[in-house]
Amino acid sequence: MKEKLKLIHDKAIAAFFEATEMKDIDEMKVKYLGKKGELTAILKEMGKLSAEERPIIGQLANEVRQDIENKLDEAKKRLEAAEIAHRLEKEKIDVTMPGKSQAEGHKHPMSIVIDEICDIFMGMGYEVVEGPEVEQEYYNFEALNIPPNHPARDEQDTFYIGNGILLRTQTSPIQVRTMEKGKMPIRMISPGTVYRSDEVDATHSPVFHQLEGLVIDKNITMGDLKGALAVFAKELFGEDTKVRFRPHHFPFTEPSAEMDVTCFACGGEGCRVCKGEGYIELLGCGMVHPKVLKMSGIDPDEYSGFAFGMGLERVAMQRYGITDMRLLFENDMKFLKQF
Amino acid sequence: MDLPMSWLKEYADVNVGIKEYVEDITMSGSKVEGYTTLAGEIKNVVTGYIKAIAKHPDADKLQICTIDAGQGKDLTIVTGAPNIKVGDYVPVALDGSVITGGKEIKTGMLRGVESEGMLCSIEELGCDRHDFPEAPEYGIYIFPEAVELGKDVVELLDIKDVVVEFEITSNRPDCFSILGLARETAATYKGEFRYPEITVKEEGAGKTEDMISVEIKNPELCPRYIARAVKNVKIEPSPRWMRKRLRAAGVRPINNIVDITNYVMLEMGQPMHAFNIDCIADRKIIVRNANAGEKIVTLDGVERTLNESMLVIADPEKAVAIAGVMGGENSMISEDAEAILFESANFNGPNVRITAKNVGLRTDASSKYEKGLDPNMALDAVNRAVQLVEMLGIGEVVPGMVDCYPNKREPWELSYSPEWINKFLGTEISEKEMQITFERLGLIVDPAKHTVIVPTYRPDLEAQADLAEEVARFYGYDKIPDTLASGTPTVGKKTYEQTITSLVKETMISDGLCEAMTYSFESPKVFDKLLIPSDSKLRENVTISNPLGEDYSIMRTVSFNGILTSLATNYNRRNEQAGLFEVARVYLPKALPLTELPHEIPTLTVGMYGNMDFFDLKGIVEHLFDVLGMSSIVEFLPETEIAWMHPGRTASVKVNGDNIGYLGELHPVVAKNYEIGTKAYMAVLDVEKIISYTNRDVTYKPLPKFPGMTRDIAMLVKEDITVKEISDIIKKNGGKYLESAELFDVYKGAQIEAGYKSVAYSIFFRSPDKTLADTDIAEAMQAILNGLATEINAQLRDK
């Protein structure tokens, strides 16, 4: 029996060694170790052995079974490794081929700019407030110290609806609406669509966007105005940005100023973008006119404040180098996908 | 406002270069648009003497001149000009010189003869016969007298000047004058302001008041009218210095009297007019409103029709000028005028502005008047004009004047508090500095009482804040220290509505759509293009009374057109696929005509075309509702009634019966109207309503502990049974373990009877506290199958 066991052992080991496919291994496992397998068949004959021989042969048989099983595992592992290596080889791809693009949407460049500016001011404690686009003449003009026949009404070519109603020419009416609510202090910004009757061309649109800001509290100074807007400009255009305040005139602020920022394209050296000036006009601002405060029910002896407003198309166009404003409203996918 | 620097320097000193001046004056509040140097490009044009002239051997019309231009050797210059002769002194553009327009002159051959430069006409030096009346109409400029040779002609003719262009704001009419800007310049540099000394000798015979009378019928529109007479006028070109200044300031010289009126207007900011006294009937000036339909031919030869709101200067018979706008041809200064009348008047600004606009004639005078001028400056102006007459010796100024000024405007007093100003600005400027600033601007300061008397030319100074601005701008805005407001802290935030709106946009972008931006006004033709019935309420709109044209004349009541037009643009440009969305408002009037503001409803509009179908769009909309926590309350129902949508492929979106929008395929006729040659899919949702139904509250549900059990069923139903009906039956009968029922197949085709479809569902059951056995769900499955069979006559298919 010893010889028989040894024969089975050697035969099995040799067979495993030559096996090239996993199914061969499985078959062999059945052939040698299965219930009807060769090893089992021999073990069935154990009963015929003497009591002395039985433990010796039993141990040998177990050893043989163990070794066959080990070799079987080894052969299995070898084949698995070969199979994986083969699969990896087969699965090789050209990684230099282009990636599959995912359907990806895009924010409108105007929205990008508006959101960014809103985020800056929200970080400084400003609320975002909105108001009607079809507006009372009173809020758009009178309450902003622009009485009828004021030349500023001509400067802002207005679309009228009638009955004292018009399309707002500026986002400033929201200032008045906020002040009238009388909740102090006020720190607000207000982005929105405004309307002026300019013919459509590369730099004009009858529909465009402005962003307005208003701060009212006790002891607000012109220094505070400058400080807040300087921080804003640095946030929007970068830490190295410098600002310049020039005296100007707006009916609803006094003193009034225009704020220029160092050209983001050349950093103030003078280039094509800033027409050699080194600065780009960004916004109008000023201390809220005492008359405007009073008209909105705020006591100018107790409170003071500042306001600012800017056109947003220009900011977006300058930032992205867009030279024709019409592109912003055409919504060509080839344009929108760039942002 | 164009400011010639040479003229400015008569009244204020500028000791810095032009670049620095422009910067300084801008920073003190007079904004410079730019500057130009007149004759700045002209180089190397010198005086020369014609020593000899010979005929050109090969060209009849050319002559060869021998020129001494002080260059150490004679030059040969070929010219075609007929007006020169030996002995003339002429401008010579040397080899390598530049003449007006930047044209370079080089030595070259002219029909075989070398020409070492060019002789110049006055035009080639950037001037014309208005500047130099002695210049020939055609030909070379010849100096009227002998000149030193080789001298720079630009310098000799004194044609160089730097002109600064200002943008004057509407609150500073005083700065629409050389003197006003000189005052600002002097204050900027803390230097001397030299107001001209105005004296008149009045050597004419008689008295002005005997020669002319003035009556103002409407003192509100004409607060002041001054007339002064000049006799024995000699009309001729004004002297070179005056012509030069006018020209530099952008005004064409005409003759000495007209030039004087323009000179005074530029210098002082007061428009003037000169009438031929003999053309004034009865020598009586009446300032009155025009009669309706009254006509006048203005100085430019155009007949103008007036209305009653307009003011005219008239005599008893006729209008002789449109007040503040332009004089009439019937009383213009002609060369034979003997006695003239200078008008220096004040007119109501807004009225002049409206008149100028309505007659379509905006003049230098009207653009000054419309800002609202100081009536007190009219007196100095008229005296300045007659002073110039005497200075030029061109007439005898008649003593006295007629000055109608019923309500004299007086200076006013303002008080100020230096502490308040410093607190307002955030500065520590000394009282003394404030006082000096006020004084430089012409205010009379009482430093003890802290009051100022404001001169009438500064109507913009009404309150302390205005004085603070004056202090600030001459102190320097840039010197005010930047600070950050202290005070009550506030929280920066968006409103709930804004936050949800942002979420809507972000979701659309995450689904691959691009954000669009369209005009909120459009053409009323849009209603027809969208097949909107003529009696639809949607046609009631907010109409603009003065639109840019019909295409932009109504505020949209349907958000559709903008996105649809953009889809058409993309289609037309052969973009294969487009997916756009916009959140923008529609404007619905509450009543017409508009008496209160319309309802402005923010609306989400989605438009797409390309490789997609209805369900791609619906997937996006469902995703949105999922993000907003609305999935469980939203229903999609077949919608056949929207005129511009495909009646078989449109769903309305409802929450508890409340319509919040719709989505579907665009009606093919509408697609054709917009020239979109493919199927387009559109969704419109009322963002205001969406916000009200949004539920962002999330409560954690424990994760399942036990496996569930799936049952797949396939059934045959009539074609018109909706998936929603089937789902509802399954949910209704599913029992307590039903977790979900997912549609996984809808099939129509060969093995299916016509008029029927096969629908397959995967139904999933789970219990929170045990592993389910078949028996646990048998009852529920049976209920589902019974429900399907009885309610919609479904036949279960063997799988």
Describe what you observe in this structure.
The complex is a heterodimer of chains A (339) and B (799). By secondary structure, chain A is α+β, with helices and mostly antiparallel strands. Chain A has helices at residues 2-18, 22-33, 38-44, 53-90, 109-123, 137-140, 151-155, 173-181, 222-237, 290-295, 312-320, 327-330, 333-336, and strands spanning 127-128, 134-136, 160-162, 165-167, 186-195, 207-217, 243-250, 253-262, 279-288, 304-311. Chain A has a seven-stranded mixed beta sheet, with helices on both faces. Chain A has a three-stranded antiparallel beta sheet with strand order 2-4-3. In chain A, helix 1 packs antiparallel against helix 2, helix 1 runs parallel beside helix 4 (53-90) and helix 2 packs antiparallel against helix 4. Chain A is rod-shaped and about 130 Å long. Chain A starts with a helix and ends with a helix. The model of chain A has no long low-confidence stretch (mean pLDDT 89). Chain B is built from 21 helices and 39 strands. The mean pLDDT of chain B is 93. Helices cover 26% and strands 28% of the residues of chain B. In chain B, the strands form ten sheets. A seven-stranded mixed beta sheet of chain B has the order 27-30-31-35-34-33-32, with helices on both faces. Chain B has 799 residues and is of the alpha+beta class. Chain B folds into six domains: 2-35 and 166-188, Phenylalanyl-tRNA Synthetase, Chain B, domain 1 (2-Layer Sandwich), CATH 3.30.56.10; 43-157, Beta Barrel (OB fold (Dihydrolipoamide Acetyltransferase, E2P)); 208-404, Phenylalanyl-trna Synthetase, Chain B, domain 3 (Phenylalanyl-tRNA Synthetase, Chain B, domain 3, 3-Layer(bba) Sandwich), CATH 3.50.40; 415-479, Phenylalanyl-tRNA Synthetase, Chain B, domain 1 (2-Layer Sandwich); 496-693, Bira Bifunctional Protein, Domain 2 (BirA Bifunctional Protein, domain 2, 2-Layer Sandwich), CATH 3.30.930; 709-797, Ferrodoxin-fold anticodon-binding domain (Alpha-Beta Plaits), CATH 3.30.70.380.
